[in-house]
Amino acid sequence: MSSNTQPTPLSPLALAIVLASAGLLATPVQAAEPTAGSNSEETQVQADGTALPKVVVTAQRRQEAVQDIGAAISVIEGDSLKEKGVSTVNDLQRVTPSLEVEPAFGSGQPQFRLRGIGFIDYTSNNSSSVGVNVDDVAFSLPVQTQGVLFDIDRVEVLRGPQGTLYGRNTTGGTVNFITRRPTRSFEAGITADYGSYDAWTTEGYVSGPLTDTLRGRLSFITDQGGAWQTNRDTGESLGDRDKLAVRGQLAWDATDDLDFRLSLQHAYDKSESRGLYLFQDYTSARTGTIRDRNTHHTGWSLRPEFAEAADISGGSKPHVDNTNDNISLTANWHVGGLLLTSVTGYNELRRRELGDWDATVNADSDEYFDDRVNSVTQELRLGSDGKQQLNWVTGVFLSQDRLNEKFNSDFTDRLGFSTLTSYVQKVQTQGLFGQVDYAFTDQLKGIIGLRQEHEKRDLEDYYSGFLNGTLFPGTTAFPDHTSFSNTGTSGKVGLEYQLTPSHLLYASYSRGYKSGGYTAHNSGNQLAIAPFDPESVNAFEVGFKSDITDRLRLNGALFYYGYHDQQVLGLSYSQQSNSLVGAFVNAPRSRITGGELELLWHPLQGFEVQQYLGYKEGKYTDDFNAVNGAATLAAGGERYTNYKGEALSFPKLSYGGSFAYTWPVDQFEIRAETNYSYRDEYKQEILLGKDYTVDPYWLVNASVTLSPRNGKWSAGVWARNLLDEEYDVTRNFFLPGTSVAQAGDPRSVGVRASYSY
């Protein structure tokens, strides 16, 4: 929804074109040198101000140009993340087609969805349909993926099922974060941002050789301030950030053929939580009717009894108190024309998070999470070394995850009680995978891949009941231990045809598989811990990659997904409270179709245009009988609706791009960039109802940067959400009468300065 105070003489797209084109009459200049600290052998190399970049990636486990890969891949350089206003994992949806990253009720837990395939849950125990890897280390749970966006070389977003090349199997796709590596010469740099609402961000690094064969890199980021919400009753601010992350790396060339890289990262997040706001009138016996729909206003309170049970301070604001530690060791051994790679990872996360999900002083839905996650992964790959006529890779993936989750919920003012849900989940995963590609001719290549996976999930000591330790009325005791196992097969068959050296056509069939899981919500329904089934996707894709000229690149893809046993968040009904709670079910059959276009154009030296467009639509194609929330509450008992033919719940259209221009002024260069994104409406009628549709919105960012030619410093100004668009990221409800939304960030402006040595 748009702000009521904004003028609208220009559309966001038209304004973006005007801002970015302001310097077109200036004299063009040569492109800047590659940024210090980048992985020169793995990132783009630009010949001059008009030549298209050659982007080299490792998405297929070897270095190759992304234009030579028959798959839908978007690559975002680390330096451009700041220019485009991407500071968290959630912001990636602003620069990538067909990607949504949805926060869970204002929390730090992102929910990924690619081409309509995703898994939306506020608890921590289920894996995502979209995989996330940092330097080849796979994260098992979405909550582990915060805090990785600093000192990044590039981000690779692979759309479509993955599994024949990657350790962890996915049905939607994979997001790879590749950090900057230790360098062979000394480098150092620091960047500082200051913006609206007293927000500070400082990022720095130092890198270089320690001995002839040993290199090191130390990097950090700190993020402070930024609160823009207030308590409607007291005027207190909410939303200040307090984050710090430090990463250290050592790269050792043990021999000419054997190298190791050790990475250690520690991060903490002691920020205040994002508050929700009321988008409909709220009425209760305690406060009467609240008619406050200001997106900057929220509310919270904490009953002393609940604070004592959660072991937190009675005057606490909604906040997080998280720590995250990562260790990884990667070894590469080139021997006899083969490459043997070992990637060992360990992650330990402590999550403590207080949220007020009813956005009022009432105890309608106050939540406190206390989680511990321990994850160990081991991936071992063996394959051909370099690019040959026959290329192959095979590997084994092992992981062991343990989650201790406990969350308290305070419903006292609405229902008269508080609840506790706690459990231990253990997951063991084994995967065997491989892929082969063979060049039949100089133009035609065939690809075949296969994966077999086995996963075992154990749920121990599950409890869901009153905070005083008694079960809900009518609930029999939960078993001390329950477990289930899944075994699934996935694979890929593809053809690539190099029409000319700069035009590639491809077609592929992929089968993706995702294991089942448990609905670990606060429910007295015995069926809550009955596992839901695995899901699978049969994906058909055709596409092209084309450098039409040496200045114009256009890539595109069309896809059709046949979805089997789609994991959907439905509803279960609680008789004693006449309320609804989420429960995962399987929809027998559904399908998704769509496509993407990505354009890169350098019409003039120093002038760059980027555009992307994504469209998808889907529906349930077989009988799908699920609880109808509105009808169930009205009847006081479960009522079902067959949703065959109904649309799947996700935004259909995504569009965005940027205009950037660099021109000389005396001994300096000025770079101006405007980028923008559009997200279509997000309907949630099946689960929540028509009132909970998230409206479409535009976002526009802009920046201007000054630097000496080939100099070591830069300074600039930036604006995010330049048009001050008011928009919602999510909408939901808690119990009848509490309708809440998470608002997106308002306009912010700031300055940035950097220095590198």
CATH architecture: Beta Barrel
Q: Mean of residue pLDDT?
A: 87
Q: How far apart lie the N and C ends?
A: 45 Å
Largest sheet: 22 strands, antiparallel, barrel
The top-level CATH class is Mainly Beta
CATH superfamily: TonB-dependent receptor, beta-barrel domain
The amount of beta strand, in percent, is: over 45%
Helical fraction: under 10%
Tally of separate domains = 1
CATH third-tier fold name: Maltoporin, Chain A
Helix- and strand-based class?
Answer: mainly beta
Molecular shape: globular
Instruction: Please work out how many helical segments DSSP would assign.
Output: 5
Number-wise, the strands total 43
- Rg, Cα atoms, Å: 26 Å
State the low-pLDDT regions, or none: 1-48
Q: Could you please describe the fold and organization of this structure?
A:
With 757 residues, the protein is mainly beta. The protein has a single domain (12-756), classed as Maltoporin, Chain A, CATH 2.40.170. 4% of the residues lie in helices and 55% in strands. The protein is built from 5 helices and 43 strands. The chain has a 22-stranded antiparallel β-barrel. Strand 39 and strand 40 form a beta hairpin. The model is unreliable at 1-48 (pLDDT under 50).
